[in-house]
Hints:
The protein is mostly helical. It is 44% helix and 8% strand. The chain has one domain (4-98). The chain has helices at 4-23, 31-38, 62-70, 92-98; strands at residues 47-48, 51-52, 55-56, 78-79. A hairpin with a 2-residue loop joins β1 and β2.
Amino acid sequence: MCLASRTRGHLLVVMLAYELARCWYDLDMTVAEGLDELKSLCTIQVVIRGRSMPHNIPRPRASVRQLLDAADVTLPKSIADRGVRVSTRKKLTDERKAS
Length: 99
């Protein structure tokens, strides 16, 4: 069964991949290779006296900076902690089962 929301979601992913392929064409890098390189992006959570401060974003390494520049993406200096837990080390289906 095709749901409209799934079709729209798939179309969005395909369009994003197409745009990244266009942006990274001169870098001689596939979308999969570029996304793999972007996995090194992270934030650093600072906790002082039990209170979480905004998550600082370290300066990305040169290869990641090149990908971001080619896609005209500017990273913020920090991300405010809004109590949202983001985990990319675990599969989402595992986390959904625990809920």
